[in-house]
Specification:
The structure holds two protein chains of two kinds.
Chain A (H helix, E strand, L loop, with lengths): L3 E2 L4 E5 L4 E3 L2 E2 L6 E8 L6 E7 L6 E3 L2 E6 L4 E6 L8 E9 L7 E3 L3 E6 L1
Parallel strand pairs in A: 2-12
Antiparallel strand pairs in A: 1-4, 3-9, 5-6, 5-10, 7-8, 8-9, 10-11, 10-12
Chain B lengths: L3 E4 L2 E4 L5 E7 L5 E7 L5 E9 L2 E4 L6 E3 L9 E3 L8 E8 L1 E2 L2 E2 L3 E2 L3 E5 L1
Parallel strand pairs in B: 2-13
Antiparallel strand pairs in B: 1-3, 3-8, 4-5, 4-9, 5-6, 7-8, 9-12, 9-13, 10-11
Amino acid sequence: AQKVTQAQTEISVVEKEDVTLDCVYETRDTTYYLFWYKQPPSGELVFLIRRNSFDEQNEISGRYSWNFQKSTSSFNFTITASQVVDSAVYFCALSEAGYNFNKFYFGSGTKLNVKP
Amino acid sequence: DGGITQSPKYLFRKEGQNVTLSCEQNLNHDAMYWYRQDPGQGLRLIYYSQIVNDFQKGDIAEGYSVSREKKESFPLTVTSAQKNPTAFYLCASSTITGGYSTEQFFGPGTRLTVL
């Protein structure tokens, strides 16, 4: 079973539209971390945010915001007033302890196309 | 500047040849990782290492080998046993705090093409 599911394979929006990227995770651990990464066309993954399982506060950073809900095992990412530079593939990831110590589980990614 | 470097950026290999991809970090991170990414796909873990002279297989280790002789370096060898090695290879590193890995930082990647 997938540990991290990003059901949206590709999303296209017009510049200035808001867009939400969905992430659903699965874990039995009570302590875990969730992450979002951006992969622009150059290929290098850029870290965006880390959230631990005990902190359900939403976070806002400029045009980016994250909604963490343990009740639905979701960690969604919203870009407000999208820009062409936001075009990239976005990955959600989960890190948990246990047998797979320090192993990260990445979702399959959501490709975001922002058109001018 | 602290960071992760990977070389080469592009690599071409003939079938039957072994090749080694370099990954170096100067972030003083304990853990290092190798991932493979195929076009339009997510990341798959090849190998990871939490400490010098120790490493563990990931999900797709067959046909690959690694070493961790120094904290800063984690080279990946793609052997001739890897049946379909053409892919984008990403190296990452992270610190370990309280038993958990922090966020992973990634290098720029190496695109390997088998001719």
